[in-house]
Amino acid sequence: MKLQSFLAAALAAFSFCSNLHSQTLQLKSTKAIEDQTAQIGGDPVEIDLSEFFEIEGVTGQIVEMKFDEGAVSIEMLSDVAPLNVENFLGYVDDNTFDKTVIHRSIADFVIQGGSFTATLPIESVVTRDPVVNEFSLSNLRGTLSMAKLPDQPDSATSGYFINMADNSNILDTQNGGFTVFARVIGSGMDIADAIHAIPTYTLTLDNSGFPYEDFPLGGNASDDITVDFMVELETARRVTALPNSDGSPSMVSFAATSSAPEIADASFDGSILVVTPGGASLGSTTIVVTATDTNGNEVSDEFVVEVEPAAPFFMTQPMPRAVEVGRPVTLSAEVESALVATYQWNLDGSPITGATESTYTIASFSNSDAGEYVLSVTNSEGTSVSSPAMLIAIEASARLINISTRGIARSGESAMIVGYFLSGVSGEKEMIIRAIGPDLLNRGIEGAMLDPQIRLLSVGGGGVSLANDNWENGNDLEYLTELMPRSGATGLMDGSKDSVIVGSFPISGYTALIGPNVGEADGIVLAEAFDAEEDRLNSDVRLFNIATRAEVGVGDDVLIAGFWVVGGEKANLLVRAIGPGLAKDGVQNAISDIELRVVDGAGNTVGASDDWGDSLHRDSLVREMIGAGAPVPDEGSKDAATIVTLDPGGYSVVASGVGGETGVGLVEVFEIR
After folding, report:
1. Cα separation of 293 and 509, whole Å?
2. Of 71, 76, 107, 106, nearest in space to 91 by CA
3. With bands split at pLDDT 50, 70 and 90, how would you rate the model's confidence at 290?
4. Which of 182, 256, 424, 487 could lock onto 74 through a cystine, CB 3.0 to 4.6 A?
5. Is the dihedral of CA 596, 279, 377, 325 positive or negative?
6. Is pLDDT above 60 for 5?
7. Above 90 in pLDDT, residue 132?
């Protein structure tokens, strides 16, 4: 069937139609971006580029039609043909137009598609009910209309055509007029012209023997017909004119460069240009913004950003804490100042003599040192004051005494790991390490491991290498029975296959590996380490670090490590949840983004962290990690860390993946004094 047999003409073009035809519909700059000022280390400057760039005259929904030859962007004209726009967008949204073919191209007239697949044999697309004819605008070059059957004005379904010439005298007066529902914008007609220039043939492309006339096909006349030679519409999708912050497709993209990124650099949040001043350099930089449409057309503008001096800016803040009388303590803050600055620490509003650096150390804390500390930093632009840090004097720190973790333990490298470090000058500490599985079944825990085992090693391969499978085997039961009540460990059923290691251990670090016995299944285990010392509150050997490594799941399967602090008045603890740091050390399936909450016995969150480097106390974290012998995570890593000051009691560390991430995670609690 020839195209002319089912294309018709329509009414003369309205005056609005000629105005539509006169618009350029091109990417353009509407006005110049003004020069900007910013303060060094200060807030970013945000510029909405939609106020400076546009596709001229385009206000409707845009659809990007991506052909082999390039992209043709079209604007829907819902004001004049709402039903036909809705019909066309329906085929766009359900991907009907993807992998379809331009099956007709008539010189100086139209190119037509939307009806057949780009396959061999060719197949008709699945169509919906026909749409009502809404002829209003003339069929001028660059407009799109719906194809329909002869003498049936309301028969259009999925077929469309692009007018390659002014066809108003042919198509505006037949068959009720052909409904113009969209127009080509930007330089999309260059792509349409390239398609229009492809040679056409009369071909038999399906099993019916029907001749497809004026079928555009690449290659040479002597070549075999293949899909590769067809003009394929790869995708048709809705896009916005300018970028959105959600990352959805757009006709225009933005790029920006800074001549001096150390002074100020540029980034984007959708169509918002974000100019961020640096923290170390004054002066000016030229920002060049380039808008590029899907056909590669570019429009640029540039402006100058002057970064000026500012009052000092606090990057981190001094940390409040409890301090044992007689022990040292350090306060610090990181401050940015492009100008020469002076520092002054103040206690309860009064300057401290000689405390004129960003770091202030008290070698031996006393009751008279307790109070509110504030750091004042001054340059020629002004004075900035830190957040107050309250230091509380205590006679004795509360102590860590145990850790317990419930999670899934597996064999090999996926074993659950419980670690602890003992500190002191000399001596030993009585400890109980347990792997509870069968006893969990008695508590109604489904999926508990039926036969766990423990292997305990001293860190660095020292003199300790112990193992247990079934708690009643290989242990001094009388000794164990004595230690369990005073440590807080619950009793175990006779004959159960829970595992226990008990003993007196010298100052060192220890790692307990917990997994299923040979031939047994993986499962849920409660891993526990207890300080079983009779006078643990006064012992010279302290349990200063406890840790557990296990799988971090979602919901009820997040990693939860419980611990107790007893005695004394308060405990300062460094709490960490490590994921990316494990991957760096070669741990398989380490969680890539982890966060933590410290929860008290009443369920209140008393500390939290996500992305340790974002902490306002980052410098204090680094100092305490180094002091505790804990590796400092990489800058920008997704590990979590915080410092909390806690009253005696029971607490839990809840470690979970950000955004539902899962994998192996490590929870650590360090005593810092």
Report:
1. 61
2. 76
3. very high
4. 182
5. positive
6. no
7. yes
Count of residues in the chain: 673
Segment 308-320 shows an average pLDDT of 91
For residue 70, what are the β-bridge partners? 67
pLDDT per position as a tens digit, 442-454: 888 888 999 999 9
Residue 2, pLDDT score: 28
Q: Is 44 exposed, middle or buried (0-12, 13-18, 19+ CB in 10 A)?
A: middle
When pLDDT is averaged across residues 114-119 and rounded to a whole number, the result is 95
DSSP 582: H
Q: Which helix (H) or strand (E) holds 19?
A: helix 15-22
Cis peptide before 121 (omega within 30 of 0): yes
Mean pLDDT to the nearest integer, 256-275: 96
Cα end-to-end span (Å), the chain: 90
**Taking all residues of the chain, what is their mean pLDDT, rounded to a whole number?**
91
pLDDT over 50 at 564, yes or no: yes
Nearest-5° Cα angle at 295, 289 to 296 = 35
**CA–CA separation, 548 and 418 (whole Å):** 4
How, if at all, do strands 329-332 and 571-578 pair? Answer: unpaired
Q: Which residues of 563-595 are buried (b: 16+ CB within 10 A; e: fewer)?
A: bbbbebebbbbbbbbbbbbbbeeebeebbbbbb
Average pLDDT rounded to a whole number, residues 30-58:
94
* CA 617/CA 572 separation, integer angstroms: 14
For residue 184, list its beta bridge partners.
Answer: 74
Q: Of 249, 211, 194, 206, whose CA–CA distance to 68 is shortest?
A: 194
What is the helix (H) or strand (E) element at residue 583, kind and residue range?
helix 580-584
pTM for the structure as a whole = 0.64
Domains of the chain: 3-27+48-238 (2.40.100.10), 242-308 (no CATH), 313-394 (2.60.40.10), 396-550 (2.60.120.380), 553-673 (2.60.120)
Our CA dihedral for 607, 610, 614, 616, rounded to 10 degrees, sits at 0
